[in-house]
């Protein structure tokens, strides 16, 4: 026959330990007044930080809206510039075709007229021929002799029919 005691029972030992809390343990499990005050200060600090973050976010959102507006304006300007460039390119093509037609008409009109020290006009010497003609008409005083006057007159007659 064994004597029964609570000291030998594992359940009783656990229950006893659970029931025996020291004063320090009780204070540690409950909030101290100083903890409440510290938590209150922490909450105030957190609220302040939240307000600052909200303000910063608002400023960033406003900056983003402004930036998006600037990007939108720049995109519109770029589109307008691209459209203007396309129009200019089309005009340049038209002018190039017109110039090509005029140069062909000039070559045909002046095919039988020979400038001094030059071959007859062709696509290969077109630029040099035109430069010589420009020089002749710019400096007519140098070409006052009768032979050059006849040459200038025949050139005028040859290009008379070209419409610009």
TrEMBL record:
It comes from the Eukaryota. Its main location: nucleus. One of its GO terms (molecular function) is RNA polymerase II cis-regulatory region sequence-specific DNA binding. This is MYT1 factor. The gene is Myt1_0. Keywords: Coiled coil, Nucleus. GO terms for cellular component: nucleus. The lineage of its organism: Eukaryota, Metazoa, Chordata, Craniata, Vertebrata. Residues 36-98 form a coiled coil. It is found in: Nucleus.
